[in-house]
Records
---
Amino acid sequence: MATLQSGLMRGQVSRMGSTQRRAAMAVPRQIAGLRRDVSAQASTAKFFVGGNWKCNGTHASVEKLVADLNAGDVPADIDIVVAPPFIYIDYVRANIKGAYAVAAQNCWMKPDGAFTGEISAEMMDDAGVPWVITGHSERRLLLGESNRTVGLKTGHALEAGLSVIACVGETLEQRNGGNLYHTLDLQLQALFENVQDWGKVVIAYEPVWAIGTGVVASPEQAQEVHAYVRKVLGDRLGKATSEGIRIIYGGSVTDANCAELATQDDIDGFLVGGASLKAPAFINICNARGAVKA
Ligand SMILES: O=C(CO)COP(=O)(O)O
């Protein structure tokens, strides 16, 4: 229990239900040591906050969320992107203020054709949607998207002119089985095989065990993985490129835990699920580092 407590934010455990507590107890605070020295690199990137609304909302609730986001003060010197369900994207795009860009939560990997139910990156570009999320763990795990599929979608979206938030992250079984870095290596390799222009890619590290569980990675746990990802990027792309790529953290981020996470050298922002549906919390997360207001 001491290990669990020390790995979580203060007060978090007492607010959890029993299922969440069990999940939290299975999360080791100390993960296997890094295979390489990662201390030589640090981020120079602009802070980035994404709100992934997932499959949530009604027209009425989306209208209210947009109005509430429009009423809030957010920093002018960061990037903020919200990802509504497809059917509400155009409404949000047309009505949200300029501080926020919109994203789709998925895209297809061909421009057009007989792909019933899919929406292509070209269509998003045509409809004024500049961002897309690829490789979210819910699509990997619930819809069977492989590393290869995620790589192809990411590469295709970039070629179609979109910017991409590409998600990586391990399950609890992978972490506990000592496969954290191997899992990340394979996920990143699929991106290396398909991405030409890294200037339009944000990487979201989202440990599956932290998504929607209330069990946030500790700042040290998140930093350790972010530093590893940046080192891998640096080895493949060069130090200057890797330092400019945003590596953001997702998994039970709230306005209570974001400030401490944001102090870590290699945490360049957040991808927020549940808390992005509440405007005051999301606005507070956008202000996690404190900055000049828009
Ligand atoms: O999956 C996530 C963002 O993409 C994280 O979700 P939660 O913030 O609800 O844990």
Note: Strands lie at 48-52, 79-83, 100-104, 131-134, 163-168, 201-205, 247-250, 269-272.
---
Amino acid sequence: MEIQPLPLLPELSAKTLTQLRRYASLLSVANERVRLTGPHDKETLWHDHIEDCLHVLPLLPLSGAVVDVGTGGGLPGVVLAICRPDLKFTLLDSLSRKMKALNEIVAALELGNAEVVCARSEDFAAACREQYDAAVVRAVSEAGVIAEYLAPLVREGGVLAAMKGSSVGDELAPLEGRWNALGLSEPKLYEYDLKDHKSYMLLWKKSAPCPAAYPRKPGRAEKKLWWR
Ligand SMILES: C[S@@+](CC[C@H](N)C(=O)[O-])C[C@H]1O[C@@H](n2cnc3c(N)ncnc32)[C@H](O)[C@@H]1O
């Protein structure tokens, strides 16, 4: 599969950078009470997590609603909501202790364009099927599994963006030519540099409705892979 360079990141205003720094502080403090993400110190959070999440920005739609599935402490959803106040974000995760802490962070940041929802994506899809213009995901599962979570939530013509590590090639190999089973185009694969390593972004277009059989009931996607 051809790997393309990620389009350039937009310039961020001083106000946006201040908000992002404030998010790093709030996440660092909250992380001491509830484990929202790995590192605690602000600088590591900034370089390894917040700067990483900025790379989703060039792939977001011009307008509409975006869902971040498995958002944890708000990565990438809070970063994107700060940078794109013109889009509406749903920050979704099934762990209530994380969503309670994230609610406090969102309130402290006065992020009017983000709502925190505590639910499994498979259950959430029953209420909000094909209502989003885009879905984003970071560090949740392998490519095929996250596609089953995200595809039912996005409208036809919308996009799905997944932040991936170096295992992405192995994850994609068995799925070549099979994505239309979820109503998806073949994905584009983008590469970008992060500190001392390369990172990857997958982008699918929702080209047809997702069959009603997906998503299966909670937990099924990981136990019985749809493409096997
Ligand atoms: C490793 S954390 C990643 C959190 C965040 N995206 C990040 O990059 O730091 C994975 C999160 O996905 C959530 N998760 C996994 N599957 C999910 C699903 N189907 N629906 C909602 N949340 C899910 C877990 O509860 C967990 O908080």
Note: The chain is about 35% helix and 25% strand.
---
Amino acid sequence: MANPLTKRTPSHHAVNKPRKRRRLEQPATKSQSHNKIAQGKLAHGKVVPINDLAWKPVALPDTLDDAEGFFGLEEVDDVEIMRSGRSGEEVQYRVVVPSELGGMTEVDEMEWQGFEGGELDEAVVKGDTLGDGKQERKRERKTKDSAAQSSKPDKNEIKSLSNGFSALQDLDNEEETSEGDVSAWLPLGLSGHTLAALAKLKFWHPTSIQVAAIPEILAGQDVIGKASTGSGKTLAFGLPIIESFVTSRAAITGNKNGLKYPTALILSPTRELAHQIGQHIIQLCTNLTTESPRVAILTGGLAIQKQERLLAKADIVIGTPGRLWEIMSTVPGSLKRLQKIKFLVTDEADRLLSEGHFKEVEEILDALDKAEINENETESKTSQPRQTLVFSATFQKELHRKLASRSKAANNVLDDKASLEYVLQKLNFRNEPKFIDVNPVRQMATNLREGLMECGAMEKDLYLYALLLQYPKSRTLVFTNSIASTRRLTSLLQNLGLKPFVLHSEMPQKARLRSVERFADPATTSSILIATDVAARGLDIPSVDLIIHYHVPRAADTYIHRSGRTARGELSGTSILLCSPEETTPVQRLISKIHASSDQKSETPPLCTLTLDRSLLHRLKPRVTLSTSIVSATSSKAKISSEESWLRKAADDLGVDYDSSDFAELESSAKGRGRGKGRKKATRNEATTTSKQQITAWRAELADLLAKRVNVGVSEKYLSAGGVDVEALLQEKEERSSGNRGGAEFLGRVDIIRGWE
Ligand SMILES: Nc1ncnc2c1ncn2[C@@H]1O[C@H](COP(=O)(O)OP(=O)(O)OP(=O)(O)O)[C@@H](O)[C@H]1O
């Protein structure tokens, strides 16, 4: 007896009540899968790669109308899908051999309560990013014919479509079917394919920006869309692009030579965001019930040759301006292909269009606008004009205006009218763009809690450490204004026993992507990322709990975007600014301007003034002081050693002997006339005089301090009041009695922060 691919709902369902099962009609090829089983390739209980499963075509019904569009799909029986990781990202496929072949019986299966920590889930189609072949294979499994499915379904059709899709995946659970209603999307005019993909992602309702923008884009309108961070802007432009691909595949197929042109070009200001947009679109396309578009992501830092190959076949191109222009301007034929796009999207548009970043974007736009039509491409003359879509949470002009300056108000976030004028100047729209602002009064995410903590300029390290200890089980993103600071803070916190990841633009691209991936790892709830503003825009990392602005942001839009990395969608989050006394007033002024138009005037102030428990800071200070000394001694040493190796090489080139003292003198007399001579000399002296033994001694002293508990209140004994996490204390005692040293970390939530309303 075959066990159809099953969906197990969260474990409490499966454990408490036996699940009803629905069997798919047995297709003719059942014997093939049994052969594989008999040969031991699919032995019961074996975990196998998805491509090795016994895939077989779904039998077609007698009349094609009954198929509800699901032609050419493949299905698989006798497999359990195990999901692990916090959000179930890791998927494994375990073979369940039918009973007649000696495998698990239906009764066995109903009693089996699953893998610990894992979940069974549905999976009929599979896919991956373009380029590794898997997406190609998936495309083959899907129908080549979309014509019959492109008409817009009504509500009843959608229900049956949903049901048809569910049936293929054995989504036979009543709770699931009632929840799996995507009818809220119907007024937007999307096709059944797209709706089925949304259902697979469990996106039951469109967000406000999606409601407002999608119908306009589908109607051929140019759109400028403004909506707060985390509100689903990517799909607001992504869905119409996918929809256009799905419903008019034939129309966009290229010239008579069979050449295909991309449907859309999406410009992103940062590499990470480009990859994220790509993944987001691929995720949706993977669940389409028809041929899905091929996505090419073109960013710097990765091999250009591979990206050129991807571009040659791509249906949707996502890129950062630098790499895109490099390819467009050098690779023959690429510009011509991109000139045929139907959609041009600028995401984080105010950033892309701002002075200083605009040059390459301008070159790209100019090149796209040049109509190079030759006689072989007559269809270009009749094709629809390109639609321009512009999205951001903010529109502002003077990006680098200093926040801390005493000049009036760096509230450079534009109002609607100014936004429109600004973008109109920069972009060549084909028709009058529709300006959609779904949050005209509120710039910040609804569930965001904002705080400001004043501390001495030299105390920021200490405050940062204390805050990180206060939030031990959080995903925390720390923003600085310089690469040097991200590096220094990373070392400082590593010395203190924390494990921060780092992200800045001077890192190799693969390391950048790895940092984001590890920080976002769903297997852990606690992680720290120290980043420059390269992470401020667009990054959609699930469940970031806390944003710490170690340096105050340089502009209002940066504050909005940094803070927008938390409290995304329905989630809540916290943002804390660390301000020196001179920074406090301008920052407060700035934040109140950002909130000035907010409709929440009568409620609590938008920005709470926070303080930290002084006695705790006092106890933590020796740790931070030691760590700071180690960082400055080791980084000065490293700097001197790299300078010396440069000088040694220069001496070699000149054919003279290298003598470090001669060069030090020469260097100091050359540099010595300027300001800072004394400081530089002192640093060099300090670095050279800080012996290795001294650094080792500091490290030992710090390790000693870290091994001791930090008490949090008035008593040297552990407190039973004041918000101490008693459970954590007890656990700590257990660890100690079992020989585990423990105690290196600050324990639990202790409410050392005062001031939240
Ligand atoms: N209709 C929907 N239902 C549920 N989740 C959605 C929906 N649309 C988008 N999302 C999810 O919401 C999250 C935020 O979306 P997205 O990254 O597009 O936000 P954004 O508005 O572009 O934010 P930012 O301005 O910070 O770039 C993503 O994880 C996305 O998958």
Note: The mean pLDDT is 70.
---
Amino acid sequence: MVLSLVYIYIFIFLSFLDLLTTAVIFAHGNQWNLLWTDGQGYNFSTSFVDFWIFPVVRTSLAIGAAFGILRNPIQGPANCKKYEWLITFVSAVNLYYACIKLLVYSHDETFIAGPKLTWFWVLFAWSLIGSALFILQWRYGTIQSGESQQNASINTETSSSTDGLSDTAKDPDEKTFLELVSRATIGKMLSYSVPDWPLILVGTIFLVGASLGQIFLPLFVGKVITAIVQPEHQSNFVNIIIEMAGIAVAVAICSGCRAGCLMYYMQRLNIRIRNALFQSIVVQEIGFFDEVRTGDLTSRLTSDVTTMSDTIGLNFNIFLRNLIKAIGVCIFMFALSWRLSVVTFLGLPLIFMVSKVYGSYYKKTQKVVQDRFAKANEVAQDVCSSMQTVRSFANESGEISEYKQRLFDVLKIQIKQAMSYTVYVWCTKEFLLVFTLWYGGQLLLLDKISSQGFISFILYQEELGECFSEIGDVYTGMMQALGAAEKVFELIERKPKLGIDDGTENPKQIQGHISFKNVSFSYPSRPDQTVLENVSFEVNPGEVVALVGPSGGGKSSCVKLLQRFYEPTAGSVCLDGIDVSSYEHQRLHELVSLVGQEPVLYARSVRENIVYGLDSDQYSEESILHASKLANAHDFIMSLCDKYNTETGEKGTQLSGGQKQRVAIARALVRNPRVLLLDEATSALDTESEYLVQEALEHSKSHRTVLLIAHRLSTVERADRIIVIVKGKVEETGSHVELMEKQGTYYNLVYR
Ligand SMILES: Nc1ncnc2c1ncn2[C@@H]1O[C@H](COP(=O)(O)OP(=O)(O)OP(=O)(O)O)[C@@H](O)[C@H]1O
């Protein structure tokens, strides 16, 4: 309330100051008698009286606003804010009116020579200053008092209500430019550009050179055209062309060097950010990948990085180039004709306004276009990834018409966009030019501009329009880049909840003793669902232990904990008595190897898949052959076209399920791990192959602990010991014979 009152007082004070200043200017200039032009009545081209209109309108609006806020201190400021358009409109009319008066007076020789000129300038200047102050006081007065009232009312509410939407959770599209900049995103982007400062510097020097050169070109074009059409200037033609050619060559050289330097910088920046992002992604904890979609990560790595790195480089280039050009062009325009320049600057805000309306309409429709395109892409993606299903249901034409329909939905919006663009071009492109031509023609007749100057002016005006429009595009591009950058930096700076650099233990050799001590566990993505509850068991060195139990009981989760993919919520998982979290990441995975349920092969050769993750000094040709033979993979690999060099295709699709499993077993064995984890590792093998693999593992078992998960009885009954896990708890432990005699859960599982 108090703050509102302060703002109201400031409001009224500034408005009266506005009136007073105008009155003082009139009084001091002894211009009261000029109100009606020395008693001859009002005359637009000589009278000053209309300069009173605007202070009076401003003061009336300010008093109205003050009363409004006084009557309703909570809603008042917000209501005033609704009328911001009126304030902008009044100020704009004031500006236009003052400038038109300026142009009219400037044609009156007696006025220019007379005593009224000084007072006109003072009134003109105050008219503009008063308008600017009025906009500022309205904008900040109503916003600040509104915010303070809102804060006060929020503080007094007993239940604090927030919408629960953290700032980072907001869509970048919804954020303002300042919001994005204030997150220091630009600073971070620039910090990644620091190593390229020599490139940027050289590029900028060429950019400045090219821009300065380009500023002179319209001037020369004007001279050339004048030399062509006016016979008295024809002797200059060749000289002008030579000078112009010199400038054009210099501009071309500078532009080329600028483009090369800045493009190379953009590419280096792109690679640098991509590397940083990928480095950050691969060290994130496994739980992170459970929650984040792969598509989101790849889109960060591809489109977001490209958007931010290209846009920062490109926009820096475009912005600086156009800024230099715009300043130079303005100087030339005012030098050629200040009157035409005033006309241009009166026309530009109108064009900006139309552009703004068009811009926000385009942005709104573009969102719909993107959504509809995404829907069309869903169809394409689904079809491409499941072509066999489409073919087997003979639904090709159905999918084609579905895709066509979704693209047609996009087209419907794009038709509206095209129509609005047509109207936008009508409104912005030619009106200003026509008016400039008309007014320039008058000035030409009055001999206030030369024909060459007039031609150059028109060219400069076009150039200025292009500069502003490109600067406007930079703003849009920057918004996109900042939005993309924010997402990218969020990921680059993310600290993994389970770091891979936490452990320090690096024993040369271990016995291979596994122990789970009172382990409870929930997946981070489902913290409310207990997957393991107080699980305790031990596996002795050299022992083969099978985990069995109904599906979803928690067997694979035990294996994941032993690999330290996740941390238990309670208890500890130890290897030779040391918690697995204390081992060095690299060492732990040398000692413990896993063959998972669905082994993943990479789009590389069989050999590269087997030695995946090993340095060249960690394996030999013999060790690859030995591991492949143990995994019963050697014979089928030798029958492939390129033997060990055969490509396996994306995710190993060029191999059968059983072949993939055998390559995966060889990959685990080539490391000669002390602990081997087999999670349904032989499920896709035929009985014969499985028997051979089991035999091989049996032979190597003396120096290796094996923890296996299997559903097949033939696999399980060979184990030294069986642990039955049901609903996250250990129900039974013993050998096959012992558990069968017990006739408990295991017995039932076997018979079912
Ligand atoms: N990444 C995950 N995020 C959340 N929950 C999971 C995840 N992986 C498994 N679960 C859940 O944890 C529980 C135990 O799963 P787990 O894979 O350990 O069972 P399992 O005994 O190995 O089953 P199966 O024999 O079918 O492989 C299941 O309810 C499963 O839905």
Note: The chain has four domains: 2-156, 172-335+470-497, 338-448, 514-599+672-751.
